[in-house]
Design goal:
The two termini are 35 Å apart. The chain has an eight-stranded mixed sheet, with helices on both faces. Strands 19-24-23-20-22-21 form a six-stranded parallel sheet, sandwiched between helices. The protein is globular and about 90 Å long. The longest helix is centred in the middle third of the chain and has 32 residues. It has 703 residues and is α/β, with parallel strands linked by helices. The structure holds adenosine-5'-diphosphate (ADP) and magnesium ion.
């Protein structure tokens, strides 16, 4: 079987083509960004359940997480008085027997028959004096040989281990990997598939890292690292695996950014533009507002780029609402003055139309025509706005001097822009990328050495600040009273329940549900509550969100992973539980969900932590209202890993690397530089080269 499959499967095989996956699961897997076999293998556990302690039944300690291995002695379904099913089994190993109980899973008796060897993991509880194993995870031990003996004989003597198998058990009796999940895709399912396909993947892929580097840094080879991160024998295995995989991430990013820089700066010439101060002055006068100092500074930096023969590659960072568009408009105007067109790419069609509108109102009075290029409407202008797909399909005989990429989440589009640029004309357009994700300058420079950076660290005047308070638990009641009062005025509140795990596992859902039940009794009957979490069906989610929008729900209790990207101008309070578990920049983005209307808005932060540092850190939310500045604080206080939290991997494409690990970053940087300096075309490193090609393709996929 393994041989047959491994001949038709390679790392880039689409996930739906893998035997045992199919279209139905492929759709769900895509929600986790898993599109190929390689993606599946690179879907890493975010923690492990430690069930590695295998106890003799005579020896078990109630309350502890443990595993037992034995044979089902007898098993039956019992109906309770309330009509529910109990499955009651006796399991024996060579030391003793124990009673095992499962609730409402009568079908278990089909798999777990008398005589079946099983491995069980869970917690032992005492009932009366007798220990019982309640609802353990179970697994038939297929690679055990067994024979049912006469009743009196000791059953477990017949359990003989088949030591040829690498993974003896998968879901029990080990460090059990827990994965980021999604609706209808459990860790158990993922674990089974990964275990199945890992050997095939390893057989078909080679380690791209030069041997000398592996030796110098005492790292694992790639197959060992991948095996150990999924199926470690001990925690130490995980540590070593993560070190190797983190090194890979930083190292490949470094090589790519250094190659890009070389290629971008040395091999290309851009349109060198002239700037008319007169036109610019007119542009500024025409604006319905005064530019902030940050906007002036950023515009100056970008315009300076345009006057150079060297093609610009600049990143403009600023919170949502900081006014990035007008800065881009100034650059587009200069391009127009020089007889050059601008392409302006947005992540969605709606945003593309919005940009067209905005730019049109600013630039039309100056004689600049702004067009649109999307699936539904195509009309060229001196500046043409469109979706990111525009970069592939847009053709023009006019000269493009500037490409602006507005992207809220993903960085990868810029790479795609460059692919487009490279086969367009002899002269290269300047490139400006805009993002609302606050990457601190130091971090951006370490990782994206090929970019220049401009930052809008100031909001336009007159924006309302969300009044933010770190609320001590003693004053929790006051906070609820305040929420009740606001509700009576018709205002609405978000309550985000504790952040449990970086993916919507049952633990998060449970914590939200418990909080919801608790809160119901805290408010008068007139105040209506709703519950929103990722395990709800899309239709249920939609219905709750619509009710909230319509004002029929006053308080929306939600898990933090749920997308509350809804614009409700009537919402005035954002309450966040266990706020210390979030990055500050993330908290800032969350509180941005309120204060969108005319009403004064508030953010209440609760914390479980007693640490002074943690309190100080949260307190900075009260004073600072720029996401970018908050990110810098987190970088200093907690290291980079904390800054982006949930969104981090989405942005950097890092799954393992801890960006505060300066030592690792600098080692990987040094090795990358050595390679690029000695062999810029990677002639001596064909495997590395093909790894980079595959990463490049991955980054440049549309969202
Ligand atoms: P973002 O950085 O999120 O792209 P926008 O460019 O869309 O922000 O600007 C948000 C809003 O702020 C727009 O309505 C814009 O007209 C307005 N704006 C931009 N700059 C200023 C300013 N200096 N003063 C007042 N309003 C401004
Ligand atoms: Mg914008």
């Amino acid at each position: 079987m393994l041989f047959v499959i491994s001949n038709i499967v390679n790392p880039h095989t689409p996930i739906e083509n893998l035997p045992g996956v199919g279209f139905h699961y492929a759709k769900k897997l895509k929600r986790l960004e898993i599109k190929t076999l390689e993606d599946l293998i690179y879907h890493f556990p975010f923690r492990y359940d430690d069930f590695s302690q295998i106890s003799a039944i005579s020896n078990i300690t109630p309350g502890e997480k443990l595993s037992i291995q034995g044979v089902i002695w007898q098993i039956k379904n019992v109906r309770t008085r309330t009509g529910k099913f109990l499955t009651v089994a006796t399991v024996a190993d060579k030391s003793a027997t124990i009673e095992v109980i499962w609730f409402n899973q009568p079908y278990l008796t089909k798999t777990l028959k008398a005589g079946t060897p099983v491995s069980l993991s869970g917690k032992v509880q005492l009932e009366g004096n007798r220990p019982k194993l309640i609802s353990p995870t179970y697994e038939v031990i297929r690679n055990y040989e067994y024979r049912i003996m006469n009743q009196e004989e000791n059953v477990a003597k017949t359990l003989t281990r088949n030591s040829n198998s690498i993974i003896q058990t998968l879901h029990t009796s080990r460090l059990v990997p827990i994965y980021p999940e999604t609706e209808g895709l459990s860790s158990k399912w993922l674990r089974a598939k990964i275990a199945n396909y890992l050997p095939i993947f390893l057989k078909n892929s080679k380690d791209f890292m030069p041997k000398s580097i592996i030796t110098r840094h005492k790292m694992l080879d790639l197959p060992s690292a991948l095996s150990k991160i999924h199926f470690p024998k001990k925690y130490e295995d995980v540590e070593f695996a993560r070190k190797r995989l983190a090194f890979d991430e930083i190292f490949t990013t470094q090589i790519m950014s250094q190659l890009r820089k070389k290629e971008w700066q040395e091999a290309r010439t851009a349109h060198q533009m002239k700037i008319s101060q007169e036109k610019l002055a007119k542009f500024v006068q025409n604006l319905p507002f005064t530019l902030t100092l940050a906007q002036r500074r950023a515009a100056k930096e970008i315009l300076a780029d345009l006057t150079s023969k060297r093609p610009a590659n600049r990143l403009l960072e600023g919170d949502v609402g900081s006014g990035k568009t007008v800065v881009a408009a100034a650059a587009a105007l200069v391009a127009h003055d020089n007889g050059l067109d601008t392409l302006f790419a947005a992540p969605t069609e709606i945003l593309a139309f919005q940009h067209q509108n905005t730019l049109d109102s600013i630039l039309k009075p100056l004689g600049v025509e702004v067009g649109i290029w999307t699936a539904s409407k195509k009309q060229r202008g001196d500046i043409t706005c469109g979706t990111h797909a525009l970069l592939n399909s847009f053709k023009t005989k006019r000269k493009i001097g500037l490409v602006i990429v507005d992207e809220q989440h993903r960085f990868g589009v810029a790479q795609r822009a460059k692919l487009f640029l490279s086969h367009n004309s002899k002269l290269t357009p300047h490139l400006l990328t805009m993002t609302a994700t606050p990457i601190p300058r130091t971090l951006a420079l370490t990782l994206y050495g090929d970019l220049d950076l401009s930052i809008l660290d100031e909001m336009p005047k007159g924006r309302q600040k969300i009044a933010t308070f770190v609320v001590p638990n003693l004053k929790r009641n006051d906070a609820y009273k305040f929420i009740e009062k606001e509700a009576q005025k018709g205002r609405q509140t978000f309550i985000l329940t504790p952040f449990v795990e970086p993916s919507e596992t049952m633990a998060s859902v449970k914590s939200a549900t418990v909080e919801f039940e608790k809160l119901k009794n805290r408010f008068s009957e007139k105040v209506k509550l709703g519950l929103l979490h990722g395990r709800l069906k899309s239709r249920e989610k939609e219905s709750i969100i619509n009710k909230f929008k319509a004002g029929k729900i006053h308080i929306l209790v939600a898990t933090p992973v749920v997308e509350v990207g809804i614009d409700v101008p009537n919402a005035t309070i954002m309450l966040i539980e266990s706020a210390e578990r979030f990055g500050l920049a993330q908290l800032h983005q969350l509180r941005g969900r309120v204060g969108r209307g005319e009403y004064k808005s508030y953010c209440f932060l609760f914390s479980d932590s007693r640490s002074e540092n943690s309190a100080k850190r949260l307190k900075s939310m009260e004073k600072i209202h720029v996401g970018f500045a908050l990110a810098e604080i987190d970088l200093k206080m907690r290291g980079a890993g904390e800054i982006f939290g949930l969104t981090q991997s989405g942005f950097f494409n890092f799954k393992v690397a801890d960006l505060s690990d300066q030592k690792l970053i600098s080692q990987a940087q040094t090795e990358a530089k050595k390679i690029i300096d000695s062999d810029p075309n990677l002639k001596k490193y064909p495997q590395l080269s093909s790894k980079l090609t595959s990463l490049n393709l991955q980054y440049s996929q549309p969202n």
